[in-house]
Amino acid sequence: MGSTTVGRGPRRDTRLSLAARRRLRGVLGFVVGVGGFLLVWTLLSEFIVGKFLLPPPLEIGQEMWGIVRTGAFLDHFVPTIMRLGYGFGLALVIGFPIGYLMGTSRYWRAFFHDMVIVAGSIPGITYAVMALVVLGISVLGPVISVGLVSMPYVAINVAEGLDSVDRRLMQMSDAFSRRRVDVVRHVLVPSVAPFAFAGVRLSFALAWKVEQLTEVFGSSKGVGFQIRKEFEDFSIPGMLAWVLLFIVFMILVERFVLVRLERYLFRWRLEDQG
Amino acid sequence: MSIALERRAVRGGAPGAIRRAVTSDIGARIASYLFLLLVWQLIALYEDRFPTPAEVFGFLWIEVTAGSHGGVVRGQFLEHFAATLPRFALGIAISMALGMVTGVVIGASKVAEALFKDTLLVLLALPAIIWAFLTQMWLGLGDDAVVITTFLSAFPFAAVNVVQGVQAIPRDLRRMSSAFGVSTYRRFRYLQVPAVTGYVFAGLRFAVIIGWNAVLLGEWFSASEGVGWRSRYWYDANRYKGFVGWVLVFILFIVLLDRLVLVRLQRRAFRWRDAQLSAIEREAEEVQLGVTGA
């Protein structure tokens, strides 16, 4: 939704004040909006629904603080994040060659077409329960789920990236009879890598949800496992505390790490568009 | 580059008709399905618990034709779809109706956007499993829990797409129509509706894909019949061929619904916008639309 970009036009001062005003509105909206939401929530839990079924935000906040303070946060976040990282690694390792084949050969494009196209509509629960059946309760389950979920996005983005490779560079490499290896290394990989990364970033939100679901079904550690445990203890505050902590963490990672990294990788392209 | 290779594939030295058939697009597709079956067979060989394709298709045949699974347990197929589809449809209908109202409000008003966008962001990020757990604790087992899980999971995705649609109404046209005093009705009919329709269909597609996952999860935890419940039934009975068979069915259901209905609707409504995209760009766009779900 509303993104705040500071333009570098000639009338710099007014633009900046506009951006500042917009930022102020964002902060104000956040404070009032989230504050109002929490207020409504508190009132609901106090007077209408009851504290047991809808614990007030304060209680969940205390629960969250408890999770952070006791170190349980690190114990379960670290494995979850590690698995996510390995899963993305797997997605890149498999998705890159598939995307390369799809982008360069008509046969392979038709071969992988259906697999890649339907991937987005397969329900996440499929990966979670299949991992459980094939692997049992294992650390591999979430890794492979994340890998399988993200791989098609990497593949199709790599294929799209190959489609966008500067043809003049290819012709030049041809004219100066560069070796295939060099062309791949110096022309294809640098122009395609940002697309592969975009695939990872786009699948990020889906991947961590599927990972959590896999952990709910079959894991002995991790955020999803904790959510399951709190559910079985019938602890609504515990469950909400874990999931909200994780969501906040993931939104921050997406905003401040992935988006910036992507902008960095794509910077040659942004300059190009001027 | 791909063009050069395509030409080679068509022209370059395919002597026989068989070879041409094998290297054609349809040949490649058939090969890919055979490849998937082979992988499946290999997984089944490697892991005894996992059923072979033959076992699964044998099971599905009995389930669909209401034959006997041994003893008194009979195949049930349509019954469970009949239980699931009304829940699914109701959940999607509510999320679309509320999603459109919310989307128009947030999209049209700067104040509403500033107030609600962070809440919407958190709702988008909440996994469906949380709603499945919460509704079970709130409402117990039954239809309500499933419908509300579906609604709560799909709603933010419907809303956020409508927001984008409302914000994408071309500003120039808006200004021009106010300068020339175009009537509210005509503005609605010829400016706002055409601009937003594509996004509404995209939102519907999102809602359906995400809602399907949610309805299955909801049924897995809080129902006593339905597609999600039936797959859990076989899972709990340690009859993995039944379980895998049902997983196959619910993948097939959503893929067919998406490819045969939803993608077409969306493509039609967006053809004014995407006409200049290449085939692969459009596919990438469509695949990525499904991304934020689960």
What is the tally of helical segments of chain A? 11
| Average pLDDT for all residues of chain A | 81
SS content category of chain A: mainly alpha
Question: Main β-sheet of chain B, in a few words?
Answer: none
Largest interface, C-beta closer than 8 angstroms, per-chain residues: A-B, 73 and 79 residues
Count of individual beta strands of chain B:
0
- Per CATH, what is the topology of the largest domain in chain B? MetI-like fold
CATH architecture group name of the largest domain in chain B? Orthogonal Bundle
Number of domains of chain B: 2
**What is the succession of H and E elements of chain B?**
HHHHHHHHHHHHHH
Q: Output mean pLDDT of chain B.
A: 83
Shape of chain A: globular
- Calculate Rg of chain A over CA atoms: 23 Å
H/E element sequence of chain A? HHHHHHHHHHH
What's the helix count of chain B? Answer: 14
Gyration radius of chain B, in Å: 24 Å
Indicate the proportion of strand residues of chain B.
under 5%
The biggest sheet of chain A, with number of strands, parallel, antiparallel or mixed sense and barrel status, is: none
Distance between the termini of chain B: 36 Å
Taking the alpha carbons of the first and last residues of chain A, their distance comes to 23 Å
DSSP helix fraction of chain A: over 70%
Brief descriptors of the model:
heterodimer; A: 274 residues; mainly alpha; 11 helices; 83% helix; B: 294 residues; MetI-like fold; 2 domains; 14 helices; 81% helix; disordered C terminus
